[in-house]
Every structure is written in C-alpha cells, then in structure tokens.
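Workshop exercise sheet. Pairs work together: one partner reads the sequence aloud, the other fills in the structure field after running the prediction. Swap roles for the next sheet.
Pair: D.N. / O.F.
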Amino acid sequence: MNGIAKKTLTHIGISAVLLLNLLPLVIALSSSFRSVSNMTNPLKLFSEFTLESYRAAFGKMHFMQALGNSLLLTVISVVVVVLFTSMAAYPIARLNNRLSKTLYLFFLCGLVVPSQMVIIPIVQTIQELHIPGSKFTPILMFITCSIPFSSFLYTGFIKSSIPIEVEESALIDGAGLLRRFWQIVFPLLLPVTVSVVITQGVWIWNDYFFNMIFISKAADSPLPLAMLGFMGDQTNPTAWNVLFAACFLCALPLLLLFAFLQKYFIGGLTVGSVKG
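Structure field:
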C-alpha cells in the first residue's frame, strides 16, 4: 500500500470517528429546536425550527438567576486558585532544595486522591465548624481540588519558559521579591493562566456533585442544579426537547469563553508541561 492510500484511509478513519462523536450533539441540537410537544423520531434532523423549547427552558430554570450563581462560584474560585497557585509555584520552581521538592510532591499527591473518596469526613468537618450551606460553601472544595493540577501547570511553565536572567536583572535594579513576581513573572504566565482558567473554570462551571451536597436553597442553585427540574419520572416524563435546550444554554458561556482564549489555552498546556 503506497503512501497516498495510507493517507486516504487515515483521513477516512478520522472522519468516521469525528462523525460518530458529532452525531449525538447534532441530534441534541436538532431536538432543541423543536416545539415542546414534538417528540417524533429524533433522527429526523432539523425537521422543525422554533425557539419554543429554549423559551420554556429559560423560564423554568430561572436562567438569569442560575447564571449569576454559576458566575459567582466560578469567578471567585478561579481567581483565588490563580493567585494562590501561581504564588506557590514560583518558589517551588526557583528553589532547588529538599523543601521545594517535597512541597511539589505534596501538591501532586492531590492528583491521585479523588475528592469523592473523602467527601464524608469533609462534610462532617464543615458541620462541626458550623459552616452554613450557602452558595459560597462549594467554593472551599473547588479551590482545594483545583490546587494540585494548577500548581503542576504553573511550576512546569516557570521552569521551562521563564528565564531566571530576567529576574536577576530586576534584582540588580533593586526590585524586591513581590515586585519581581507581580511586575515581571506574573505577566509572563499569561498562557498557563489561561489554561488554568479554562480547565478549572469548565470543571467548576459544570460541577454537580459539590453543589448538590453543599447548596440547600433553590435560589442559590447554579446552572447544573437548576437543570434538575427537567428530569422527569414515571408519571411526568422528561421533556427531552426542553432539556436539550437547557443544556445548550448552559454550555453557551463556556463556548464563547473558549473561542476567545483557545490560542492561549493550547500554548499553556504544551509549553507548561515540557519539563518540570
């Protein structure tokens, strides 16, 4: 088999896999543009085009209120993670001693311990500390679970992509530690910061587990919890058209964010993991 034939077969295989992965998304998108009562064969793609399901989803899930809660949870968590992990990764990457290596391994240990395994003692601890179950309670878990991976990215990026000579020049000019970090190092961390914002922001935005455990009021529910109202039962079947419309409404802010930040996202993941 010559090179052209191999290349053709490779393209055909990749296209087939792509179509298989896109088919459920296309079916869901097609169903979301149907009316609420139109539950005919979902494989009849785009047989109807109406925004009735989107209007129903928007009103039933109190979209603007849930969107505000999701933005609040995500923005606060991501900002704290970026600030704390970037500052923690800086000395770990620059100091070549036993303490920095121990701290680096300590952070990496968080990557191999699923948070769901320790959720019971965490809940007991929060109850003993009398921390109320509000919209802000899940932020504690989001920050804690985001620290290991974010520290790993920041440490690798600083070691591989930021020459120490830049900081030495600033030190000669009399710049202190904090000034060197905030005015010189941190702006150079833009690619990996965008990677942290996207990877951890997407997870926090879509998280259902911690929100379900720690949030008790319906008014405090973010978008994933607000979608619970669309799940039916034996007496009240699920309106799939409305549910699909709600899914796309929830995903729209993330798609817009990724469209603006995708070039930084790819750069931060590849450069920040070269060596460390």
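Discussion prompt: The two ends are 42 Å apart (CA to CA). What would you look at next?
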